[in-house]
Amino acid sequence: MPVMTGGKFLADTFKGYGVSHVFFMPVIVQRALLEMEKLGIKRIMAHSEKAAVYMADGYARTSHKAGICMSQSVGAANLAAGLQDPFLGRSPVIAITGRRPQADQYRHSYQEIDHIAPFDAVTKYNVGVTDPSQLPHLIRQAFREAVTGSPGPVHLDFEGTTGAIIGDGEADIEVIIDDAFISVPPFRPEPDPTLVREAASVIANSQRPVIVSGGGVVTSGAEKQVVELAELLSIPVATSLNGKETILADHPLSVGVCGAYSRKCANRVVSEADLVIYIGGNTGSQVTNEWTVPQPGTPVIQIDIDASELGRSYPTQVAMQGDARASVQKLLEASEPSTNRTTWVNRAQEIVREWKDEMSQLVDADTAPPRPERLCKEITEFLPSDSILVSDTGHAGIWTGTMIDLTHSDQSYLRCAGSLGWGFPAAIGAKCAAPERPIVCFTGDGGFWYHLSELETAARYGINVVTVVNNNHSLNQEKRGNERTYGGQTPESDELWMLSDIDFAKLAESMGCFGIRVDQPNQIQSAMEQAFASGKPAVVDVVTDIDGIAPGAWSP
Hints:
By secondary structure, the chain is α/β, with parallel strands linked by helices. The protein has 24 helices and 20 strands. The chain folds into three domains: 3-181, Rossmann fold, CATH 3.40.50.970; 193-349, TPP-binding domain (Rossmann fold), CATH 3.40.50; 364-543, Thiamin diphosphate (ThDP)-binding fold, Pyr/PP domains (Rossmann fold), CATH 3.40.50.970.
């Protein structure tokens, strides 16, 4: 085997696994960064460790390949904090950190804390690397762990504050690429045929079934199969936020996003169902609105690649372990067309129409400053056919999940799994993974403040993301709770959720980006056109109604 530095091994391995970008905070494995440059791997230096993780996460979710983020020892805890989102979002991110040499441990080394414990909570695989000779088996295992089963983050802790002991050290090592583990999913396990037939029978005997399509459907590329199953069996389709792109908004069987960040109509349909079919998604608190939708006791069929998720929150009539696409294909083959659910489909469509009628006045409102509902309508109408919509959490997740429609089959949707501020850096990572596709980030001013500095990063590297800021100079999602605490609106309650009114367009321009501010609904699409035409990272700062607060989720 050839003798090489750990840095060259890393660079050659990343290249072999199809990695085009790495996201980092200096100083970390400098030898590897040098070798990556020679191979054409772009090195994106962020302004914070969490932002670097979110960029890697957006890259991974878009490319379905591992996203790489790195930091030296002092930034390791920040990197671990950032990994919460790809962990919750089931995203294959590989994190590399440096640590003080073993001889310096347990004696108050400068800027050093234990690294293993913080990463244990947010990774599938968490190991220390003490010698370059360990790289071949540990790096390959990191890629295997990241993309197999339910994908997720992994962590490699390199000896040396900057990982230099591993990166600069030499060993007799060989680069071997496991081609099967380059992207998600590496394998498509099929469910037990007996369970498939049982599931088909249970569905055939139900009167009001509904499908809840999760993020695993998107990860598996099973959208087409899920829609075919729904059409064959006349079953309405709700989705989780991560599964939003499963079915187009105007499909007659689409009822929208259900759960906590949801359309009222979706929750109503799921609540009226006599059978809920979960495909490729967990049954956690968000997709079920704290386990109230569906109500406990509702019959459930669950399909998931991770057997430990089956029956976790709702006892199952049938539990099928397998890849979403492979499983739904087998279910299609085992099912006969249904012709007896016209009443149920009509009922679901009626519920959707009622919701649309309820929202129409807000969606079409010409008031200034604009309502968020109107902003969402304008974005829906503008989004290019092959665009990727990247959403922050909080109100941004609610607005994009419920009020922005995907109207083309090649549009994609990425959403934050829980950490406010994720959206903008994740959009940068998504653009790195898909430079040919238009990327639109939707965030509020509260979320944008977290990583505003990454505007400079986007400008420095020419990463032309268009960010739409729902700027109500507040965290108005918190308004109701604070006023309940204070018994009404007071100056004291206001200071717990109101922010300064800042012109983000001017801030963007000061960092070398394009910026435009609008406060009229009829200006929004023109502003977005100008943003895309600018040839720069761009911010469309939309001044919106501070009283534009998303409605709470419906529960029975």
